[in-house]
Amino acid sequence: MEQLLEWMEIIEDVRQHRKVRHSIKDILIIMLFATLANADTWEQIADFALWNESYLKQYIELKNGVPSHDTIQRVMGMIRPENLQQLHLKWQELLDSNEGEKLKKIICVDGKTMRSNKRKDTKPCHIVSAWSREDGFCLGQKAVDEKSNEITAIPKVLESIEIKGQVVTIDAMGTQTAIVETIRKRRADYVLAVKGNQGSLEADIRLYFEDPQIRAGLGKSTGYKKTVEKAHGQIEIREYYQTQDIGWMHQKKQWKGLKSIGMEKKTIRKGETEREEYRYYISSLLEDIELFERAVRGHWAVESMHWHLDVTFKEDANTTLDKTAAQNQNIVRKWCLSMLKLIEIRGTKMSLRRKRFNISFAPAQFIEELMKI
Fold first, then answer.
1. What pTM, to 2 d.p., does this model score?
2. For 257-314, how does the pLDDT look when each residue is reduced to its tens digit (9 = 90+)?
3. Cβ-Cβ contacts under 8 Å for 23 (sequence gap 6 or more)
4. Helix and strand element counts for the chain (H, E)
């Protein structure tokens, strides 16, 4: 906690010094603790500070009392998101136990639109995030005006973080030759989804895997893996195929470092019904079906994070119009998401949303436990 407070002191404050009544550190601690304790709106964040003023004073001065919700929002709109993101990363580094250090980490890149951050004459803020599946936190992000700008934002996000030796996963929108160039330049590997927006690439890969003899041969090789799971009243069978047999691909030279292609066949059985889903991929990985499967399955982590922002933190209901304040609030939510996973409450398994609800009753107790981890 002392280290965290020290780092907060060095965040640039662009306000006129003589007019400052509440420090950046005070605002950030209030934001962090209140968001953990189930406060979603600016008004709720200020209410949390009022009810927990004596506890907060153990860490911050509050020499002019608790700031109003307008002040909290205004100050959060003045902090550079890059600085707040760096603060988040520094905190995560304190927790890094180096477990799984020898494993290649899966870095999932995807975008999410803050839907309520829109008015008639403005577009909603769309944030592209790089999420570490193994570490469970956001490595970096970039805000753009709309989803169509995601393609230009992805290289900027990848250039701002350390990805050397790791595996980057992106959905089909991000499967672009320029993005592949960036990944390889940063000395990382990729497993990228392929759909119809890459010319004939998807059709060629699909036709290859549809060949019965090829499928049969791969099914008996080290480039095949099958998993069977029971969930939500249905059986899910996943079959993974990966091959380095890509000499036939006329597009091979367009994709820097391309070494293999892959397919996931998902069979869903529920009662008497059964349906099949197919997904296709290009990759810089040599044949390694375990790593390929981990990358394909691992991409859900960023989608899960986006789901939690909406369900656990009600992000889509937040109507903050200031783009910077909204982006900073998004960073705080992701930070709290990683914190919530560390907190145990009565030894009971519960949803993260329920954890926030419980923390709201005794924030001091749970925050103190978190800071001792």
1. 0.89
2. 999 999 999 999 998 899 999 999 999 999 999 999 999 999 999 999 999 999 999 9
3. 13, 60, 61
4. 15, 9
Reported residue count of the chain is 373
- Cβ neighbours, 10 Å, residue 211: 11
Spatial strand order of the sheet with 126-132 comes to 137-144, 126-132, 106-113, 167-170, 189-194, 273-283, 260-270, 234-243, 224-231
The two structure tokens encoding residue 212 = 């019965």
Strand runs (DSSP E) across the chain, as ranges? 106-113, 126-132, 137-144, 167-170, 189-194, 224-231, 234-243, 260-270, 273-283
Amino acid identity for residue 170 in this structure? I
Question: Could you tell me if 194 and 208 are in contact, meaning their C-beta atoms sit under 8 angstroms apart?
Answer: no
What is the token pair recorded at 8? 């907060």
Contact 356, 38 (CB under 8 A): yes
Query: For the chain, how big is the Rg over CA atoms in Å?
Result: 23
